[in-house]
């Protein structure tokens, strides 16, 4: 993969750029003159030009391209915009004030195969509704269809969705390793750090860890997920904490799993009252109960995305550390295929 190109002889500026690029997980190609830069000009994902070389670069009339920045350490340089226009740059970056912005620009330049993943939140309308099982099965089915999928456990008290998958001992980062991060996370770095199984990456908790997820950590993970995955499935706690609210506000769709009985519907209506403050596209997954489906759906007041029949052997299967089969002719497999067609129509 090609690296960002820097054109400058200003050693202080170069030191700053190397440090800022390192914060974004990037390495640089450095040219001290326009002649040295010529072989890299069209190949580099991004070009940063120092004011000391701007006029020299302009004199060579380089081909027009995007992702060119003029970077200056003088925030009051009156000549910066003239030099910016002369080299065909799209913006002037003034250090140190624009340092965080430059970190993000370097990180953007290093993102391989940028994607625009869809975020789907799943939450139980009442205890024991099966939201975690739906989350895990949906993620597994998507990854089995060669969709790059991120499964996020957002419930510190949920027992661990990695345990539900039977992979609680898998090596890789957990929430406790990420919560101290502020700002942008590289999608490729996130994928490399997390436990992965084929096209499925899983972010859960260390055993015994019950600390809340900071909302800024959830934000960084979901932003990285959108750039690096096709689908992000977030298993939410029923009691919304700030991290869950952060996920809801960024979700394309939120699925609420509930049973069609009186207490299940009443509980789910309460949950929906809170969800509606933060999420726009709310849909229900109905499990059979004493109420008919039409009455249950009318009581919820949201569209029914799918109907999940009872799975008589599900409890025994999960207690063996297994998940039910998700083939196209199975109950859960059919449900997941239908949901994926709605969530990812492309």
TrEMBL record:
Q: Which SUPFAM superfamilies match?
A: P-loop containing nucleoside triphosphate hydrolases
**Highest taxon of the source?**
Bacteria
Domain Rv3660c-like CheY-like N-terminal intervals: 7-115
**Chain coiled-coil ranges:** none
Query: InterPro entries, per this entry?
Result: P-loop_NTPase, ParA/MinD_ATPase, Rv3660c, Rv3660c_N
Which Pfam families is this protein grouped with? Rv3660c_N
PANTHER family the UniProt entry points to: SEPTUM SITE DETERMINING PROTEIN, SEPTUM SITE-DETERMINING PROTEIN MIND HOMOLOG, CHLOROPLASTIC-RELATED
Q: What protein am I looking at? A: Septum site-determining protein Ssd
Q: Which organism is it from?
A: Nonomuraea spiralis
């Amino acid at each position: 993969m090609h690296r960002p190109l820097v054109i400058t002889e200003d050693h202080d500026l170069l030191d700053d750029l190397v440090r800022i690029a390192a914060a974004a997980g990037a390495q640089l190609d450095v040219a001290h003159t326009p002649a040295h830069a010529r072989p890299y000009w069209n190949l580099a994902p991004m070009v940063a030009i120092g004011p000391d070389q701007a006029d020299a670069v302009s004199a060579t009339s380089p081909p027009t391209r995007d992702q060119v920045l003029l970077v200056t350490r003088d925030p009051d340089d009156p000549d910066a915009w003239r030099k910016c226009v002369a080299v065909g740059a799209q913006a002037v970056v003034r250090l140190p004030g624009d340092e965080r912005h430059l970190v993000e620009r370097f990180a953007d330049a290093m993102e391989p195969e940028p994607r625009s993943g869809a975020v789907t939140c799943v939450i139980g309308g009442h205890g024991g509704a099966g939201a975690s099982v739906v989350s895990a099965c949906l993620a597994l089915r998507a990854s089995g269809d060669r969709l790059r999928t991120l499964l996020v456990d957002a419930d510190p008290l949920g027992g661990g969705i990695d345990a539900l998958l039977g992979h609680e001992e898998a090596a890789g980062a957990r929430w406790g390793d990420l919560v101290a991060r502020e700002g942008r996370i590289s999608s490729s770095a996130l994928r490399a750090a997390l436990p992965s199984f084929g096209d499925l990456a899983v972010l859960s908790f260390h055993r015994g860890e019950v600390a809340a997820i900071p909302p800024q950590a959830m934000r960084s993970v979901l932003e990285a997920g959108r750039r690096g995955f096709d689908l992000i499935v977030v298993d939410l706690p029923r009691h919304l904490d700030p991290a869950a609210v952060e996920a809801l506000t960024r979700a394309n769709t939120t699925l609420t799993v509930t049973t069609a009985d009186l207490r299940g519907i009443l509980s789910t209506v309460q949950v929906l009252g809170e969800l509606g403050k933060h999420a726009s596209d709310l849909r229900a997954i109905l499990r059979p109960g004493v109420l008919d489906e039409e009455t249950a759906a009318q009581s919820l007041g949201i569209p029914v995305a799918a109907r999940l029949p009872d799975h008589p052997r599900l409890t025994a299967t999960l207690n063996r550390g297994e998940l039910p089969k998700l083939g196209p002719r199975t109950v859960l497999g059919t449900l997941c295929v239908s949901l994926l067609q709605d969530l990812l129509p492309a």
